[in-house]
From TrEMBL:
The lineage of its organism: Bacteria, Bacillati, Chloroflexota, Dehalococcoidia, SAR202 cluster. It is a multi-pass membrane protein. PANTHER family: DIPEPTIDE TRANSPORT SYSTEM PERMEASE PROTEIN DPPB-RELATED (PTHR43163). SUPFAM superfamilies: MetI-like. Its main location: membrane. This is ABC transporter permease subunit. One of its GO terms (biological process) is transmembrane transport. Residues 96-295 form the ABC transmembrane type-1 domain.
Length: 309
């Protein structure tokens, strides 16, 4: 198991290096002169040229790339074009922390709803409850967030007054409930489909029938033999589900007025603030690589066959 974790750790710098390569060239070949974007349209040509020299924009691309990688390794993502030269990391770190809390809460919602419903639907195969659950979750998955979010706001915030309609108060605040539900419901639909299929496959295995034949209670069979083995394929899709949640949180943050990474990245696109935008891409890739590493380690813990291999 330790060797497996070490191999996965050795792949992490390679993936991050590829992400840095992509991000660098995305910023290098983006339209517009970085020096002019930094100084504004009113800057004189002489001042723009001095800024280009200061930033090293006339250096060969390989030199600029290795300088960029060296700065990133030191935690220096450059200065923002729009926010008066403030360091990029100082701007995006609190926003990323907000988005991370929101998406972790959404993943918890998706797990708590999707896994039990998927397991229950599989156990009720052949009854009306199975297709009812599957069709309901399919409809919820197909609904766009700009429809789901206003509905949740109108029902839970405006009509029932249970939770605030917008704003941000942290991970343990009431404000996180509605946006976490908005992001988590499509993820729950994905988990329902995969958990149902995985459970049906496990139920048909010989060792499950043997456990029933030995007189084990349904609870023991369902927990020890069915649920634990059905969860194995689910772990492999959690990383992709989390990535999809991060991508979908942009609109949700705008709707609920959450000061997260989504709003800041959208502002960076319209303001052509490429240092902020490229830092978001690189840090987002790093977080997803780390999340997949954690999921892989969890897979080795849950599945003894991986440890033996």
């Amino acid at each position: 198991m330790l060797a497996y974790i070490v191999r996965r750790l050795l792949w992490t710098p390679v993936l991050l290096a590829l992400a840095a390569f992509f991000v660098f060239f995305m910023g290098t070949f983006a339209p517009g002169d970085p020096a002019e974007l930094r100084l504004g349209n009113r800057a004189t040509p002489e001042r723009i040229e001095r800024e280009r020299e200061r930033l090293g924009l006339d250096d060969p691309i390989p030199v600029r790339y290795f300088r960029y990688v060296g700065d990133v390794l030191k935690g220096d993502f450059g200065d923002s074009y729009h926010y008066q030269g403030r360091p990029v990391l100082e701007i995006i770190a609190p926003r990323l922390w907000v988005s991370m809390q929101l998406n972790i809460a959404a993943l918890i919602v998706a797990i708590c709803i999707g896994l039990p419903l998927g397991f229950y639907a599989a156990k009720k195969q052949g009854t009306g409850r199975d297709p009812a659950i599957v069709i309901s979750m399919l409809i919820l998955y197909a609904m766009p967030v700009f429809f789901t979010a206003p509905f949740l706001i109108l029902f839970f915030a405006v009509k029932l007054h249970w939770v605030p309609a917008s704003g941000w108060g942290g991970f343990f605040s009431l404000q996180i409930i509605l946006p976490a539900l908005t992001i988590g419901i499509p993820g729950a639909a994905v988990f329902v489909r995969h958990m149902r299929a995985s459970t049906l496959e496990v139920i048909g295995q010989e060792y499950v029938r043997t456990a029933h034949a030995k007189g084990m209670s349904n609870f023991v069979v369902n927990y020890r033999h069915v649920a634990r083995n059905a969860l194995l394929p689910i772990l492999t899709i959690m990383g992709f589900t989390l990535a999809g949640m991060f991508g979908g949180s942009l609109i949700v943050e705008l709707i609920y007025g959450i000061p997260g990474a989504g709003r800041l990245s959208l502002d960076a696109i319209f303001q052509r603030d490429f240092p902020v935008l490229t830092a978001f891409v690189l840090l987002g890739a790093g977080m997803l690589v780390l999340a997949n590493l954690v999921i892989d380690v969890a897979y080795t813990i849950v599945d003894p066959r991986i440890r033996l291999q």
